[in-house]
Specification:
about 650 residues; mainly beta; 9-stranded antiparallel beta sheet; 5-stranded antiparallel beta sheet; 2 helices; 48 strands; about 0% helix; globular
């Protein structure tokens, strides 16, 4: 699917310079008419028409078909499918009356435009880290860890990460990059090696994933979801299978999975919680009565699988207990938590006690870490540290050899470990300058993992009373993150006003969420109505890092700059306000007109607002059409931190 950025021929140098072509600029030609042009850049595919109008199409994996890669323009609400071999004709798509994209073959023929490589130093193979098929920037805008570039398009504000400690100083860490490709790393002899992953399934970029030990292999079994919402199992990093069938509960793309090392736990598209035994294909309902959960939200399960935790839409944190006859009804743990926020749970002895107790940690609506455990009068909690995090931010809790530890990224971007000793909490900084609410994982070892702003895996190891952080990837082997990294923002973009419209036939409830934090904005749109809202735009920037590179002449200072594309700042969840039940009092009403009716929210779908300059002032967004095009009903937690 991915083409080399530079075509190199075995010719004399003069002929090579004349013949080399960078396949990143193309003419779109139609006989008898002026040509248009297509150009691939860090932000996607830019098409300039013959009358000099420009349209930017961002990478959209869900539009891919065999032989073509999809791109989407949120302003015009039109799609492009570009042929992977850069030849022939592209496909053009627009939303039809049914709310789905209708595709047709373009009448324009694609022709590569030659570029003199002497005027483009990036085309020198020695200067081009993307000089292989897997690093074509149109599909992978530098977001391969071995390419040390910027993050790609993702439905998530930050890439989720998973890890597992295997013992004997061995561990695995991984995530799904902006192309939807699994990036997996293994710790060997005090350094991290990238594991070749050979699967063809399209995964959800940035989606949650979990790792389980495989008795028949030295590599973990990995579970995540595809772009279609299928639950996928990856074994030995080279074989995969779809776990669920049509008869099983439907999941949303990017649904969060929890695991106790044997079973998986998930909230399905309808808001029901399930325990899944993937090896046996058994689905056991945990709660199928209340429908009080958003689809795909994070859950937490204790390592023995005895307690399961979730946050209801009402902000209540609840626990389910496994019993001999199944699962108990939910019991309240506490209130004031973000629906869809992250949770983490373990079993460990309380300070001064020898018996184990279940514990759950979460960041409350005030940005404080609460650690809770059962007491004779219900669940009680304590505040961990004085630091603030974004409400619902990811945390990871682990019971280590020298006590209990917890890690998370503060709202100032510091990645911190909190360690309990002698009844008190002490904190140590692991790394700086991460995005607030970056997902993290802590495992025995101890090891800690996160994905940085440039979409690279950071693997930290605690030794000699300090954390050492390594960048994972071939180009980064043996290298630690640059000291005092600078994030230089591009020229700021002004805020714009967006007009949300309802082109459908039913009343809609719209929830606009700022992924940087804060309460969502909700508004109702009747058919044909509109609502205008001012929104911010991120401009992207440059990550500038300083290193001491080890050479035969000793350490040499090196400065590396990594471009960072604009970030998605807003997600939109759309619900239909539908009649779900009618009441007839037949003692006095024999007509077809009900005495009363009940309306409830029914999810239509969710989508992200375009990033950076891709969204413009006065832009009109038909939320009904966009939500139906996303084809992910139930995904109300679409772009949580």
């Amino acid at each position: 699917m991915f083409n080399p950025k530079v075509a190199t021929l075995c010719l004399p140098l003069a002929m090579l310079l004349a013949a080399s072509v960078t396949a990143e600029e193309f003419a779109l030609e139609r006989p008898g008419l002026p040509a248009s042009f297509a150009e691939f850049g860090p932000q996607g595919l830019k098409i300039t028409t013959s009358d000099q109008r420009e349209y930017l199409y961002v990478r959209q994996n869900s539009l891919d078909i065999p032989g073509y890669s999809g791109f989407w323009n949120g302003t015009s609400r039109q799609g492009v499918r570009w042929p992977d071999n850069d030849q022939g004709r592209m496909q053009l798509g627009k939303i039809g009356p049914s709310g789905r994209i209708e595709w047709e073959i373009s009448q324009m023929t694609i022709r590569a435009v030659p570029v003199d490589p002497r005027n483009n130093p990036g085309n020198n193979p020695g200067n081009n880290p993307g000089n292989n098929p897997g690093n074509n920037p149109r599909f992978n805008p530098g977001n391969n860890p071995s390419n040390s570039g910027s993050g790609g398009s993702s439905h998530f504000a930050h890439s989720n990460v998973a890890a597992i400690a295997m013992g004997n100083d061995e561990a695995f860490g991984g995530y799904i990059d902006g192309r939807g490709v699994l990036q997996l790393f293994e710790r060997h002899h005090e350094h991290w090696d990238q594991v070749d992953v050979n699967i063809r399934d399209r995964l959800e970029p940035g989606a949650p994933l979990v790792m389980l030990k495989d008795r028949g292999s030295d590599k973990p079994i990995i579970y995540t979801t595809t772009v279609n919402g299928d639950l996928i199992e990856i074994v030995e990093a080279r074989t995969s299978r779809i776990v669920n069938s049509r008869r099983d509960p439907e999941l949303t793309p990017g649904a969060h999975l929890a695991t106790d090392g044997i079973s998986l736990y998930v909230v399905d598209r309808d808001g029901f919680i399930w325990e899944i035994e993937p090896q046996r294909g058994v689905y056991t309902p945990i709660d199928r009565t209340a429908r009080v959960f958003d689809a795909g939200i994070p859950l937490a399960i204790t390592p023995q699988g005895e307690q399961l935790f979730a946050v209801e839409r009402s902000d209540r944190l609840v626990v389910y207990e496994r019993t001999r006859s199944g699962w108990s009804d939910p019991d309240s743990v506490g209130r004031g938590f973000s629906p869809g926020g992250y949770l983490t749970a373990i079993v460990a002895p309380l300070p001064g006690e020898r018996t184990d107790s279940p514990m759950v940690a979460a960041v409350d609506d005030n940005g404080r870490i609460q650690l809770m455990h059962p007491h004779t009068r219900g669940w009680v909690g304590e505040i961990v540290g004085d630091e603030r995090l974004q409400p619902g931010a990811p945390l990871s809790l682990a019971n280590l050899a020298d006590g209990m530890s917890l890690t998370g990224v503060l709202d100032n971007g510091s990645w911190v470990e909190f360690h309990q000793a002698r009844g008190r909490w002490y904190n140590t900084t692991i790394a700086d300058r991460l995005d607030p609410a970056t997902p993290v994982v802590l495992t025995p070892g101890p090891y800690a993992f996160a994905v940085d702003r440039a979409d690279r895996l950071l693997a930290a190891h605690y030794e000699n009373r300090d954390w050492t952080v390594d960048l994972c990837g071939e180009d980064n082997r043996g290298r630690q993150p640059g000291q005092d990294p600078d994030y230089v923002a591009n020229a700021p973009l002004s805020s714009v006003t967006v007009l949300f419209t309802n082109g459908g036939r039913e009343e809609l409830i719209v929830k606009l969420t700022d992924v940087r934090g804060g309460r969502p904005i909700e508004f109702t749109l009747r058919p044909g109505a509109s609502f205008d809202q001012e929104i911010d735009r991120d401009s992207g920037g440059i990550l500038r890092e300083r290193y001491l590179e080890q050479t035969t002449r000793g350490p040499v200072p090196v400065v590396r700059e990594v471009p960072l594309p604009p970030k998605v700042l807003y997600s939109v969840a759309v619900y239909a306000n539908r009649v779900t039940s009618l009441y007839f009092d037949r003692t006095r009403n024999n007509s077809s007109v009900p005495d009363s009716s009940n309306r409830n929210r029914v999810s239509v779908g969710a989508f992200n607002l375009a990033a950076g300059s891709s969204i413009r002032n006065g832009e009109r967004i038909d939320v009904d059409a966009e939500a139906r095009h996303a084809n992910n009903p139930g995904a109300s937690g679409f772009n949580r931190p």
